């Protein structure tokens, strides 16, 4: 296996183009574990650690750009991720345990596309877009459409993710993330990320995304719409929960049966909505 440490995105792209079996190395938390288990064997590892622009954080009038190499710890500590954007900060601060949060990166989370993880779901809730660089230049892709299946993205050969844009969202929006796991540092059995806008007691906007309940983060427009215009009474939340459960395709695994996961979804939704409402009124 060969190993390279490019210092610019262009050098990295040239290496990816020159080696059919090249892979980017970000935090390495998952890739190195998969290599150790013999599940992947890249011929060329392209480390992204020495490319300064991949760790940049830039604020614009309408949101925040986070470099692909920002670690979860860095994202969790970013004070500018407020309002709707706080859903990403909240997920990054809760996931896994400190060793993983110190090591693993935002770009690695998106590109791994592991259905058991929660950060991709939080990014979809935030309507985040990824900047993808490749031989043809750079393009912006909604994270929701980058994640096409479990462990599969729409990235083409020779492309890499350079940064992720988190839009500021509507004034007064609240972003919130909740996870249910067997123990605090485990992968979640189910996670739920949401962005909520309240007008007094009435819900003006809702975007709910469930993680670990299908091959990609689960977002159901009809469930969002069922909440909008209501006072988030028990019946409204229960019906939105039913719509999410109907669309979910969870797995049976050591973290819970599919049936158990279906039972958790409406409960997490109810809890996340009431916690988000409390933040909305602060
Ligand atoms: C023990 C453990 C527990 C975890 N628990 C959780 C959890 O509870 N919740 C959660 O959400 N996540 C969890 N994760 C996943 C973690 O958050 C990251 O998603 C994961 O480790 C990948 O990030 P990384 O930076 O380590 O990427 P790597 O392991 O370096 O890379 C992962 C894949 O993405 C590709 N890649 C990386 N960066 C780029 C890029 N910029 N462009 C193109 N391709 C790229 C690599 O080539 C590789 O295929 C856990 C991971 C581990 C190992």
TrEMBL record:
Q: Which InterPro entries match?
A: CO_DH_flav_C, CO_DH_flav_C_dom_sf, Diverse_Substr_Oxidored, FAD-bd_PCMH, FAD-bd_PCMH-like_sf, FAD-bd_PCMH_sub1, FAD-bd_PCMH_sub2, Mopterin_DH_FAD-bd
Record-given protein name? Xanthine dehydrogenase family protein subunit M
Keyword ATP-binding belongs to the record = no
* Any Pfam family: CO_deh_flav_C
**Mind listing the UniProt keywords for this protein, alphabetically?**
FAD, Flavoprotein, Oxidoreductase
Native species of this protein? Pyxidicoccus fallax
Q: Which residues form the FAD-binding PCMH-type domain?
A: 1-171
MF terms in GO? FAD binding; oxidoreductase activity
Query: What PANTHER family does the entry give?
Result: XANTHINE DEHYDROGENASE SUBUNIT C-RELATED
Organism domain of life? Bacteria
What SMART domains does this protein's entry cite? CO_deh_flav_C (SM01092)
* Stored SUPFAM superfamilies: CO dehydrogenase flavoprotein C-terminal domain-like, FAD-binding/transporter-associated domain-like
């Amino acid at each position: 296996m060969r190993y390279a440490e490019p210092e610019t995105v262009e050098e990295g792209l040239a290496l990816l183009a020159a080696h059919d079996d090249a892979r980017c190395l970000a935090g390495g938390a998952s890739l190195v574990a998969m290599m150790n288990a013999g599940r992947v064997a890249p011929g060329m590892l392209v480390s992204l650690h020495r490319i300064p622009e991949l760790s940049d954080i830039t604020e614009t009038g309408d949101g925040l750009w986070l470099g692909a190499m920002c670690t979860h710890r860095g994202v969790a500590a970013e004070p500018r991720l407020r309002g709707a954007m706080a859903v990403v900060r909240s997920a990054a601060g809760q996931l896994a345990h400190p060793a993983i949060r110190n090591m693993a990166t935002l770009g690695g989370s998106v590109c791994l596309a592991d259905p058991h993880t929660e950060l991709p779901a939080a990014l979809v809730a935030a309507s985040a877009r990824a900047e993808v660089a490749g031989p043809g230049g750079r393009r912006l892709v909604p994270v929701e459409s980058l994640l096409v299946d479990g462990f599969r993205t729409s990235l083409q050969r020779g492309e890499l993710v350079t940064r992720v844009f988190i839009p500021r969202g509507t004034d007064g929006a609240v972003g919130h993330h909740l996870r249910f796991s067997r123990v605090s540092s485990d992968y979640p059995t189910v996670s739920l990320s949401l962005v909520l806008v309240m007008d007094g007691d009435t819900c003006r906007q809702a975007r709910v995304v469930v993680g670990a309940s299908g091959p990609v983060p689960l977002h159901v427009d009809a469930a969002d719409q069922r909440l909008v215009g209501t006072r988030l009474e028990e019946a409204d939340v229960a019906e939105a929960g039913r719509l999410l459960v109907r669309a979910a395709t969870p797995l049976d695994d050591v973290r819970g049966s599919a049936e158990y996961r279906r039972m958790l979804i409406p409960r997490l939704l109810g809890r996340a909505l009431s916690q988000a409402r409390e933040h909305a009124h602060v």
